[in-house]
Amino acid sequence: MRRLAWLLLLLLAPRPAGAAEAALASQARATLERATACLRTISTHGAYAGIYSLDLRQRYGEALYHRAGADDIWVQPPGTPSVGQAFLRAYRATGDQRLLEAARETAQALAWGQRREGGWDYLASMSGFRASPFAPPRPSGACTFDDNVTQGALRFLMSLDEVVDAPWLTQAVTAGLSCLLRSQFPNGAWPQRYPLGGGYADCYTFNDSAINDCLYTLLAAHRQYGKAEYLQGARRGGDFIVLSQLPAPQAGWAQQYSRDLRPAWARKFEPPAVCASVTSHNIRTLVDLYLYTRDAKYLAPIPAAISWLNRSQIAEGRWARLYELGTNRPLYGDRDGKVHYTLEEISEERRRGYSWQGEYGLKGIRYYQQLTEQGADRFQAERDRLPNDQDRARHAAELAPRVREIIQAQDAQGRWITDGMLHIRTFVDNMNRLCEYLEAAR
């Protein structure tokens, strides 16, 4: 009898692993709270620069060469919208209302920095900010689709709109989506910047996923709001991807196109060329658009594009970014505006400051292969499947060592210091990893 009672106690007693997970989850929540409190003390009315000196006197945007003024906020991810998304994700993982309020403050700051045209530029000014009455100045000026700037800001506002009902938020989202539709060319493309101002920024632009991010934002808007015009805009974007595919044997896509659909120059180190990175991104976008619409025309260009990628590897699973039109030789550019054929020919600054070689084609090729092997229904179900308890437990165990490192690296003020500076990218990455752990361990 005593033996049976002992066995029952052993079976019912809390497992050490479970206790350890609960303790780590508690520490992760506390770390999130400290990070949020720290960020709110350095924010500009809820918004953020990209990099800060430890004394907060120096502020920068994307990098140390990009100085920001005292009232300037950085919109390009992982800037202000990324911080807002991290706050919102943390709120969903913890239910802590303070995190939702932080996300709301960040959204209101973004809405203040929104341009009259409905989009955003890399920097926005918070000069004269007033939370109440909230009447944003809406300055006129160019908005950019480069680097997910306008699209990223809009996606965060849309995410918050799912949980916060506020007139200013509805207005900002509506204006942003209207900007996406208004800036789209009749053939379905988007420029790099809007309104058009001349130069390569007026090109039909795939570089840095400009068109792809616009398309995905409209698909997300259609899912959330159900308006047909958003799906129509996304489909027009897909139609342009089909239209702009280059002819075989180089059946990929360029980074940017002129009005006559020819690959065009952008910056001095970005010559007209077939681009492996853009081609891989476009394959994935076409697959996603097919899954959303089940229109087979979006799959039709992919086999020829994959054939070109397979023939263009410079090593197993490795591609150059750019290939010369006609010859298919790898191309490299420099600030001298000349075309080079080896990486060693270009300056060290451009070798280090641009992605010239990589595993560009792998994601697109594998994504399409999974679709064809599994079939559309199974592939989509697997892609969208929510993890079960066993999946979450396994993922939590995999994340635990990194989560402990993040917790230990945070200082008493809630900061993560990188190379003697405060990098918003580090805060965003660490907060998202903590949220990921809490979601898995929940």
Secondary structure: number of strands: 16
Task: Give the count of helical stretches.
Answer: 15
Proportion in β-strands:
5-15%
- Give the % helix: 40-55%
Rough shape?
globular
Poorly predicted tracts of residues: 1-16
Q: What is the CA–CA distance across the termini?
A: 37 Å
Q: What Rg is obtained from the alpha carbons, in whole angstroms?
A: 24 Å
Count of individual domains = 2
Strand order of the largest sheet: 2-1-16-15
Q: Assign the structural class, choosing from mainly alpha, mainly beta, alpha/beta, alpha+beta, or little secondary structure.
A: alpha+beta
Sheet of most strands: 4 strands, antiparallel
Mean pLDDT: 94
How does this model look, in words?
With 442 residues, this protein is an alpha+beta fold. It folds into two domains: 224 residues, no CATH class; 144 residues, Glycosyltransferase (Alpha/alpha barrel). A four-stranded antiparallel sheet has the order 2-1-16-15. The chain has a four-stranded antiparallel sheet with strand order 9-11-12-13. It starts with a helix and ends with a helix. The N terminus is likely disordered.
Which labels suit this protein?
disordered N terminus; four-stranded antiparallel sheet; alpha+beta; single chain; 15 helices; Glycosyltransferase
